[in-house]
Amino acid sequence: MRVLAAMSGGVDSAVAAALAVDAGHEVTGVHMALSRTPGTLRTGSRGCCTVEDAFDARRVSDLLGIPYYVWDFSEEFAEDVVADFLSEYAAGRTPNPCLRCNEKIKFAALLDRAIALGFDAVATGHHVRLRDGVLYRSVDAAKDQSYVLAVLTADQLAHSMFPLGELTKQQVRAEAARRGFAVAAKPDSYDICFIPEGDTHGYLVEKLGARQGSVVDAESGEVLAEHDGFFAYTIGQRKGLNLSRPAPDGRPRYVLGIEPVSGTVTVGPASGLDVSVLTADRVVFSRGEPPQFPLRTVAQLRAHGGQVPASADLVDGRIRLTLDEPLRGVAPGQTVVLYDAGDSFVIGAGTIIRAG
């Protein structure tokens, strides 16, 4: 097959490209330029898709003896990932930009161009297994990325390859070292790639402007603090609230709700965070067609953690989920992924619009 290897400049995508070559595919490497300021350099494990990363990807491609190109997707990234991130926060929701990047850039814009140029599939360094068009968790549970790929359609999965699904991260690094890749010990990137400083609040204030509002006690209605932007808060947050006085019972308060029109942030006891029922729209099913509902499932609400058995139904195209045990820190805008209750494969995913 003609395979386009998406090479971020990290160790995972490097080994994925190498394994695709070993499998006998005709492989071409491509690095996606996503930043409109390409001179920005990576700092340790902060940031990705930088000039430094592009050089690292080129060096690996040279060692593999495969063609290598840099494709500019900065416009698509700005519109589909960054603008979406800002609009979601402005609406009081909690987005996942990495998930949106997979959905809109790596497996939409990149894949569409690859197919148009005659490639059969795109290979990436995600830690996930693909069997008969179905996503399964990686053998390395700590690195499993099936959650952030659960929004892919059946057609996108049909043109995707994930060579690392059967390897642990330790094995990937060992394989990279064996092949002499300089990225063998390169740190994994974390945080939001377009906010390499890690100051999400500062970035949002810069882009959205200061929006003053009040922090209010859910039980008494008392104003406990003022803020310059409700987007500095997330559901379940405990630290950094800067409240004027402690709760009457002396226990911590948590962010329970965010109202973007008035800018009101509501805080209260931990018990107010308990969520047992939620609704999700923008539903995608990995096999294309929905399974038979209602069904038993394992729901996951964060990239790492937030897993709980649940009962799911499909009502008017939306997922209605009843959790066996309450979860905390669930917010509109987050993605919920449904897994098979027994075999850990992805059934589908949706974006949470209501949680209570």
3D architecture notes:
The chain is globular and about 65 Å long. The strands form four sheets. It has a six-stranded antiparallel β-barrel with strand order 12-15-14-13-16-17. It contains eight helices and 17 strands. The longest helix is centred in the first third of the chain and has 20 residues. With 356 residues, it is of the alpha/beta class. It folds into three domains: 184 residues, HUPs (Rossmann fold, 3-Layer(aba) Sandwich), CATH 3.40.50.620; 63 residues, SH3 type barrels (Roll); 82 residues, Beta Barrel (Elongation Factor Tu (Ef-tu), domain 3).
Tally of individual helices:
8
CATH level-two architecture of the largest domain: 3-Layer(aba) Sandwich
Beta-strand proportion: 25-35%
Which parts are unreliable, with pLDDT below 50 for 5 consecutive residues or more?
A: none
Count of folded domains: 3
SSE series: EHEHEHHEEEHHEHHEEEEEEEEEE
Q: What's the CATH class label of the largest domain?
A: Alpha Beta
* Separation of the first and last Cα atoms: 48 Å
Shape descriptor: globular
Main β-sheet description: 6 strands, antiparallel, barrel
Quantity of strands, as a count: 17
Rg over CA atoms, rounded to whole Å, is 22 Å
From the helix content, strand content and strand pairing, which structural class follows?
A: alpha/beta
The CATH homologous superfamily of the largest domain corresponds to: HUPs
Whole-number mean pLDDT: 91
Briefly note the CATH topology name of the largest domain. Answer: Rossmann fold
Percent of residues in helical segments?
25-40%
**Main sheet strand line-up:** 12-15-14-13-16-17
